[in-house]
Amino acid sequence: MSGAPHDERSNDGSLVASTLTIAWSIVGVVAALALVIVARHVFILIFGAILFAVVLNRIASKLLAWVPIRWSRSIMVGIVLILLVVLLIAAVFGLAGSIVDQLDSLTTQLTDSVSRVREAAQSHPLWKRVQKSDVGLSSLLPSSGSSMGIAQTFFSSTFGIATDVLILSVLTVYFAISPSAYRKPLIRLAPVPWRERLDEMLRRSSTTLWHWMLGQAVSMTAVGIAFGVGLWFLDVPMAIQLGLFAGLVTFVPTIGGIAAVVPAMLLASGEGASNVWSVLALYAVVQFAESYLLTPMVQKQQVNLPPAMVILSQVIIGLLLGFWGVVFATPLFAVAILWVKELYVKDWLEKADEVAAPASPSASG
Questions:
Q1: Where are the transmembrane segments (predicted)?
Q2: 271 or 328: which carries more pLDDT confidence?
Q3: In angstroms, rounded to a whole number, what is the distance separating the alpha carbons of residues 11 and 260?
């Protein structure tokens, strides 16, 4: 008899403890979501830095297994980083020199074209009607205030992207040189029973990012070869360099493709307008094949992402997180799918079904 009140008190205490745990968990989740929403721009940069740091570490680990000299991993990461930066700078400056050489002839061609268009427009009856009407040409052009606003927006956006690239680069270097210095404190923030599982999830996330990057490397290589060979058939100068540049910038969806076709069109303009249209058609075919066929299929093999989900992730995350959301949409979505499958489906739903399954026969009996 005396044990009954004690059992009731213990049950009440367990109920209160469980309720408090659930309440604090909800508060923590809401606070985390609010923090992510407010600082989403910073978080997407941190994720990008983690992605590049994972890639640098994996490449450095592969090289350490092949190189007979026993270097530390940090030194090998630095060597890989320097080599990648040198290759990128060489590709960009190699293209820039040829484009500058073509600008003089392009400027002359554009000036002649504008003069011919002006002469044809002035002789057209519609132009004479516009001159007789009350509508002035100045009303059709943007005002000085709006022009200044457009210029200010352009320069502020450019400065913002440059600042983001600097922050991304610095974070990548720090994360790559000493990843354990950031992973271990993060694991210690979790409750003790969850630490082993969290460490496993972080390692599996790293593997997922590496596999995604391998798939992206396949797409970048295919685009570079296809674009370079196509430009070579069209007799565009520096076709190999342009193909290399196209492969590098394909890492950035949509915007990278535009950045690849602009220098190709500038260099092709010296051969005439028909060649420019041919380059534009080549770009459209390669871009369509890469965006809607090659990349979705490759990523399905590497990280088990359905092709439609790859495209939808770029659209949805791009709308939520802007430019950097478009850049890192697919790897972010791949990691999110991994965590949902492991923590929500496997650790919660399926374990709950396993616990409930033995109880059903006795309940029915």
A1: 22-55, 75-100, 154-177, 209-234, 240-268, 275-295, 315-340
A2: 328
A3: 67
